[in-house]
UniProtKB/TrEMBL annotation:
Gene3D superfamilies: 3.30.530.20. Residues 16-141 form the Activator of Hsp90 ATPase homologue 1/2-like C-terminal domain. InterPro entries: ASHA1/2-like_C, START-like_dom_sf. SUPFAM superfamilies: Bet v1-like. It holds the Pfam family AHSA1. It comes from the Bacteria. Belongs to the AHA1 family. This is SRPBCC family protein.
């Protein structure tokens, strides 16, 4: 079930692996970087900024910057960021951030991963629709990337 509103993107995928393995792939900054395609400079720490260069072809000029909101072991990982802030000539610092949340739930065969990103209604109108569209497609791809990463690295 993947659904979206104008303010919130929601994606989910079931991964044939234990919650603990999926949790590690999402919250360990090195593993996160492998499937997300970002070279993060340090670990995720609640209340702190983590940043790094995107390594996805065509976006290498982009620095990803997140502020970690929550690390609730085997359950919820959340961070704030500025969605689709990719133009190096634009200062996005006055814009509000959106909240990205990963929640994990054990299933009979593995782990259900839910990803949501909310707060798009606060993004400036002139770029809100494109940011939403790009991140909607981005999260659809990223849930598959994390699944493939976990399956390739049991």
């Amino acid at each position: 079930m993947n659904k979206s509103t104008t303010d919130r993107i929601e994606k989910q995928i079931e991964i044939d692996a234990p919650v603990s393995r999926v949790w590690q792939s999402i919250t360990d900054s090195q593993e996160f970087g492998q499937w997300f395609r970002v070279n993060l400079e340090g670990p995720f720490v609640v209340g702190e900024v983590t940043r790094g260069q995107i390594t996805y072809p065509g976006y290498e000029h982009v620095t990803m910057e997140v502020i970690v909101e929550a690390i609730e072991p085997d359950d919820r990982f959340a961070f704030w960021w500025r969605p689709y802030a990719i133009d190096p000539n634009v200062d996005y610092s006055a814009e509000p951030r959106t909240l990205v949340e990963f929640t994990l739930e054990p299933t009979a065969t593995g782990t259900l991963v839910r990803v949501s990103e909310s707060g798009f209604d606060g993004i400036p109108a002139h770029r809100r629709d494109e940011a939403f569209r790009m991140n909607d497609g981005g999260w659809a791809a990223q849930v598959v990337n994390v699944r493939d990463h976990v399956h390739a690295n049991p």
